[in-house]
C-alpha cells in the first residue's frame, strides 16, 4: 500500500492477502476468547441468583456451546472438503481458500474442546463443594 | 405456524436466552439455526453452515476491525490517554468540575484515534478515576463521567459501529466517518454542559482545582503532540484518499505501536498482552457478527423484515413521526442489548424501511444521516441501565461504587444525549453537511 502511494504502483492482490490472513487470524482467536470467558453475556438480570445456581446455568450453556461449536466444526470440515476438491482459490493470486477452512476447523474445534473442559471443571467434586472456580 | 409467527417467537426466545446468561452470539446463532431449520429445512442450513463462517470472516471490509482495535489498545498502552487527560486538566482543571471536564475532553481526543467505547472507558478510568476520587469528586459524578466519556470512543470517528453499519448498508466508511465528526463534537459539548449544570446544582460533588500558570499549561499541551501526529497521519491519509480505511488502520496500528515502544512504555511483555487483548476483543466481535448473520438469514426467511418495511411504508404519519418512533424503539432496545448486536440485528430490518421514507434528501445524505442517528442511539444504549456495557466496565474497574450510584451519575449525560438526538433529528444537515463540503 505504501508502494502505491509513493511509487504509484499497485501490489498485486494485496486485498486478498489481507482478507485471507485476517480471516485466518480471527478464526484462530476464537478459542483464546473462549479460554478467557470473554464472550459478551448479559448478567445483570441474574446477579441475584446464588453462586451454585449460576455455576450450573453456566455449565449448561458451556455444554450447549461445546455441542454447537462441535457441530459447526464438522460442517466446516465438510466445507474444507468441498473447497479442497473444487480447488477454490482467490481471484488474483490463486491463494487456496481451504487454508481458511482449515483454520476454521481448528479454531472452532478447539473452542468446543475448551467449552467441554469448562463443563467438566464445573462438574468436578471441588467445584461442587463450592470452591472458587475462577 | 405462519412464518411471521415463527419470526416473532424467534425474537422472543432470543431475548429470554440472553437474559438467562447464554452468550449473546450463541443465543443469536442457536435461535437462528432453529428458525432456519423450521423454515428452510436441513439441507440449506447445512450448506449455509459449511461456508458462512469463512465467507463472513475472510473479508477485506471486515479486516479493518482488528486493526483499529489494535491501534486503540496500543494507544492505551502508550499512555496517550494519560497525556490527553493531563493536558486538558492543565487548561480547565481550575473550573468547578474541572477534572470531570478534563475526562470528557481527554476521552473525546482519545476517541479520535480509538474506535472502541470499552477501550476508551477502560484506559481513561485507569487515569482519571483515581484523580477524581483523590480530589473529592463524588462517586456518582466520577463514574458517570467515565461511563459517558467512554462512548466518545465510538461517537468520534473512527468507530467500529460505523464500520459495521457501512458494511451492512454498503455505504462509504470514509464518508460516514466524516459525517460523524460534527455530531461527535456536539457530544463533547453536550457532556461538558451536563457537567457544568450538574456541579452548579451539586457544588460539593465536583470541587475546583488549582489554576496553573501559562508556562505549565503550554508545557502540558506539548504532551498531546504524539496523539495529534498519529491522528494526522491516519486520517489525512484516509480522508484525503491516499489509502483505504483498512490501510489507514494498519498504518495507525504500526505508528501507535512504534510510538509506544519509543516512549519506553511498551516492552515485549506489554506487546504480548496488547496483542492478546486485541485477539479477545476481535474474537468476541466476530462471534457476534456470525451469530447475528445466522439469525438475520433465518429472520429474512420469515419475511418479517420485508413486512415490517412495507407496514412502515403504509403508516399514514409524517416521516418525522415514524423516525421518532424508530429512535424510541432503538433507545428502548438499547436498555437490554449491546450496541454491536443491536446494529447487526436492526439495521438490515430498519434501514430499507427508513430509506423508503421521503425526507426530501438525496439517498446518500439520508443514509449518512440515519447512520449517525443509529450510532448515537445505540451508543446511548451503552450507558442506559440496566444493560449498558460501559456501566459494567466502570463497575468492574471500581468495585466499591454500587450500580445505583453509577446509574445516578450517568443520568445527566443521558439527558444531554437526548437533546443531541433531537437536534440531529431536526437538523439532518449536521451530519451530511461536512461530507458535502469535502466531496463535491
Radius of gyration of chain A: 21 Å
Structural class of chain A: mainly alpha
* Percent in strands of chain A: under 5%
Quaternary structure classification: heterodimer
Question: What is the helical fraction of chain B, as a range of percent?
Answer: over 70%
Cα-to-Cα separation, first versus last residue of chain A: 45 Å
Provide the structure class of chain B.
Answer: mainly alpha
Average pLDDT of chain B works out at 91
Uncertain stretches of chain A: 130-134
**How many distinct helices of chain A?**
5
Mean pLDDT over the full residue set of chain A: 86
**What is the number of E strands of chain A?**
0
Helical residue percent band of chain A: over 70%
Mind summarizing the main beta sheet of chain B? Answer: none
Structure description:
- The complex is a heterodimer of chains A (134) and B (440).
- Chain A has 134 residues and is mainly alpha-helical.
- Chain A has helices spanning 2-7, 14-35, 51-86, 98-123, 125-128.
- The longest helix of chain A has 36 residues, at 51-86.
- Chain A is elongated.
- Chain A starts with a helix and ends in a 6-residue tail after the last helix.
- In chain A, 32% of the residues are buried.
- Residues 130-134 of chain A have low confidence and may be disordered.
- Chain B is an all-alpha fold and 440 residues long.
- Chain B is 79% helix and 0% strand.
- Chain B has 22 helices and no strands.
- Chain B has helices at residues 3-19, 24-40, 42-57, 64-77, 80-92, 98-111, 117-134, 139-155, 160-169, 173-179, 181-201, 214-221, 225-239, 245-262, 268-302, 304-314, 319-336, 339-355, 363-381, 389-397, 403-426, 429-438.
- The termini of chain B are far apart.
- Chains A and B meet through helix 2, helix 3 and helix 4 of A and helix 2, helix 3, helix 14 and helix 15 of B.
Amino acid at each position: 500500500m505504501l508502494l502505491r502511494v509513493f511509487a504509484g504502483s499497485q501490489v498485486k492482490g494485496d486485498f486478498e492477502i489481507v482478507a485471507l490472513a485476517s480471516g485466518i487470524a480471527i478464526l484462530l482467536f476464537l478459542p483464546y476468547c473462549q479460554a478467557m470467558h470473554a464472550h459478551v453475556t448479559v448478567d445483570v438480570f441474574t446477579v441475584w441468583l446464588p453462586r451454585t445456581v449460576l455455576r450450573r446455568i453456566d455449565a449448561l450453556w458451556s455444554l450447549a456451546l461445546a455441542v454447537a461449536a462441535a457441530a459447526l466444526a464438522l460442517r466446516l470440515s465438510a466445507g474444507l472438503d468441498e473447497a479442497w476438491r473444487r480447488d477454490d482459490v482467490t481471484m488474483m493470486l490463486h491463494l487456496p481458500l481451504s487454508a481458511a477452512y482449515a483454520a476454521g476447523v481448528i479454531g472452532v474445534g478447539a473452542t468446543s474442546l475448551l467449552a467441554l473442559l469448562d463443563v467438566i471443571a464445573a462438574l468436578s467434586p471441588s467445584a461442587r463443594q463450592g470452591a472458587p472456580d475462577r | 405456524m405462519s412464518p411471521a409467527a415463527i419470526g416473532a417467537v424467534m425474537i422472543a426466545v432470543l431475548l429470554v436466552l440472553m437474559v438467562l446468561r447464554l452468550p449473546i452470539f450463541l443465543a443469536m446463532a442457536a435461535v437462528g439455526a432453529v428458525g432456519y431449520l423450521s423454515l428452510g429445512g436441513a439441507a440449506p442450513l447445512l450448506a449455509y453452515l459449511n461456508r458462512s463462517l469463512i465467507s463472513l470472516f475472510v473479508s477485506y471490509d471486515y479486516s479493518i476491525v482488528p486493526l483499529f482495535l489494535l491501534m486503540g489498545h496500543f494507544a492505551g498502552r502508550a499512555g496517550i490517554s494519560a497525556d490527553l487527560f493531563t493536558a486538558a486538566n492543565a487548561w480547565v482543571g481550575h473550573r468547578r468540575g474541572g477534572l470531570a471536564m478534563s475526562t470528557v475532553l481527554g476521552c473525546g481526543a482519545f476517541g479520535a484515534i480509538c474506535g472502541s467505547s470499552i477501550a476508551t472507558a477502560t484506559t481513561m478510568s485507569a487515569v482519571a478515576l483515581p484523580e477524581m476520587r483523590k480530589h473529592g469528586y463524588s462517586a456518582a459524578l466520577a463514574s458517570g463521567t467515565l461511563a459517558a466519556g467512554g462512548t466518545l470512543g465510538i461517537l468520534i470517528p473512527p468507530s467500529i459501529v460505523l464500520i459495521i453499519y457501512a458494511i451492512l448498508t454498503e455505504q462509504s466508511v470514509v464518508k460516514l466517518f466524516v459525517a460523524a465528526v460534527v455530531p461527535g463534537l456536539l457530544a463533547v459539548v453536550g457532556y461538558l454542559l451536563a457537567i457544568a449544570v450538574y456541579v452548579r446544582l451539586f457544588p460539593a460533588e465536583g470541587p475546583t482545582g488549582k489554576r496553573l500558570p501559562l508556562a505549565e499549561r503550554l508545557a502540558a499541551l506539548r504532551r498531546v503532540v504524539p496523539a495529534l501526529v498519529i491522528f494526522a497521519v491516519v486520517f489525512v491519509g484516509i480522508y484525503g484518499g491516499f489509502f483505504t480505511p483498512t490501510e489507514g488502520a494498519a498504518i495507525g496500528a504500526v505508528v501507535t505501536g512504534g510510538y509506544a515502544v519509543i516512549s519506553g512504555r511498551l516492552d515485549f511483555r506489554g506487546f504480548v498482552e496488547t496483542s492478546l487483548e486485541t485477539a479477545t476483543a476481535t474474537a468476541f466481535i466476530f462471534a457476534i457478527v456470525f451469530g447475528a448473520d445466522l439469525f438475520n438469514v433465518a429472520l429474512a426467511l420469515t419475511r418479517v423484515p420485508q413486512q415490517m418495511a412495507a407496514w412502515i411504508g403504509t403508516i399514514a404519519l409524517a416521516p418525522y413521526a415514524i423516525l421518532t418512533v424508530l429512535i424510541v424503539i432503538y433507545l428502548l432496545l438499547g436498555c437490554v442489548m449491546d450496541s454491536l448486536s443491536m446494529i447487526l440485528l436492526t439495521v438490515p430490518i430498519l434501514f430499507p424501511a427508513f430509506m423508503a421514507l421521503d425526507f426530501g434528501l438525496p439517498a446518500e445524505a439520508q443514509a449518512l444521516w440515519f447512520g449517525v442517528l443509529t450510532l448515537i442511539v445505540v451508543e446511548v444504549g451503552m450507558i442506559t441501565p440496566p444493560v449498558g456495557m460501559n456501566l459494567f466496565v466502570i463497575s468492574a474497574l471500581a468495585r466499591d461504587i454500587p450500580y445505583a450510584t453509577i446509574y445516578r451519575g450517568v443520568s445527566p449525560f443521558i439527558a444531554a444525549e437526548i437533546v443531541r438526538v433531537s437536534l440531529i433529528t431536526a437538523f439532518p444537515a449536521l451530519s451530511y453537511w461536512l461530507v458535502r463540503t469535502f466531496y463535491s
